[in-house]
Specification:
10 helices, Arc Repressor Mutant, subunit A, 199 residues, Rna Polymerase Sigma Factor, Chain: A
Amino acid sequence: MPDMTAEKTRPTYADLVEQAQSADAETRERIFGQLVAQFTIAAQSWAYQTLDDLHAAQDAAQDAFITAYENLDSLRDAEAFPSWLRRIVMTHCHRQQRGSLQTVALEEDSLPIGSDLLTVVEKRLLHDHLRESVDDLPDHERIVTEMFYLEGYSQQEVADALGLPLTTVKKRLQRAREHLREVMAPVSRLNSFLLMRVA
C-alpha cells in the first residue's frame, strides 16, 4: 500500500515560509529552495502571461525569487506568499518591458479585414474578460485556476508544484469554476470549453 504519511506530513508553503523566516542563513537558503521548487512553474507562468517570451519569463521569475528571498522577513502573513510573490514577478516583468520598450509600426495591410477582423476582436475581448475574471478570484483559487485551465498542467502537477494535497486542489478548482460560471455566463462557448476540462 502507498505510504500516506509522507503526504500528510508534507509541509505547506506557509509552513516553509515561517520556517525560513525563523531560520539561520544556511537553513533559510535550503528551505527557500523548497519554495522555489514549488513555485517555479507558477512564477514562470505569471511572467509568461505578461512577457509572452519563455526566456524573458524565466529571467523575470529568477529575479523575483532573489527579491523574495532578500525580503522574506517583510512578509507578515505566510499564507499570502503566492500573491506576494506574484506581485514581485509582475514588478520584474514591468521592469523588463520598460527596459526593452520599442515602437512598432503596424502596417494597414497586416490587419485582417471584414469578418476575420471581427473574429479576432471578439476572441481578444473574450480572452481579456476571462483573464480579468480569473484575476478577481481569491488568491488560493486563482493560482490553481491559472495553472490548470490556462497553462495546461494536470491537477496532480498543480498539487506537486504548490505542495498541496490533490483533494485541496480539486476543491479549489471546483469553487473557482462556480465563481467563473457566474461572471462568464454571457460567453457560454468559452465557458464550456474551459470549465469542462478534466485532468
